[in-house]
Amino acid sequence: MKHDLLATLHPLLAAEASAEAHATGTEPGDLEQAVWLRLLERLDTDGPPPDPHGWLRKAVRSESRRTRRTTRLELPYGTEPAEETDRGPEQLALTAARRRALREAVRRLPGRCPRLMEALLSSKDLTYREIAGELGISQGSLGPERSRCLGCLRRLLTSEVAAREARG
User: CA–CA distance from 27 to each of 12, 83, 137, 144 (Å)?
Assistant: First the structure.
């Protein structure tokens, strides 16, 4: 049942994602991946939608709007936050401690997040294609996977910082 539905919807999803992706500034594969995830979650909880084609079109547009909102809110830093102009011994020690804490937190992430985050943090400056090949996953799933891993990392670090502040 699930397989038939997915096979039936695949061409429509590919077309809809391709049409919407340009406006969101994202790759069609990333948009497809997000919609597939929503569909699979729905199938596990509520079963198949009564009108799968209509649901799929609405889901693509909804994910597209969510991506546009997120893109508008995410602004690049003017400079790299870790780049400090003062490179004295104290600053170097603090920078090294931050990097160690980040690497330790990355190692505690669930699933394949540690490998993905290590690849992203690598000094080799790997491309998405190289990372996907190294991890054995599709390039289109890297963006959503990276977002999930960053969300986990954010929650992990936020809870640790809050716990430390509560003790002090």
Answer: 16, 30, 16, 11
Quick one: angle between helices 28-45 and 52-73, nearest 10?
A: 120
Beta-sheet strands, E only, within 60-116: none
C-alpha to C-alpha distance for 104 and 141, rounded to whole angstroms: 25
Burial code of 56-71, b = ≥16 C-beta within 10 A, e = fewer? bbebbeebbeebeeee
* Token pair 């429509």: residue: 12
Task: Name residues of the chain where pLDDT drops below 50.
Answer: 167-168
First to last CA, the chain: 55
For residue 35 the two structure tokens come to 């919609």
For residue 22, give the amino acid letter.
H
**What was the pLDDT predicted at 106?**
92
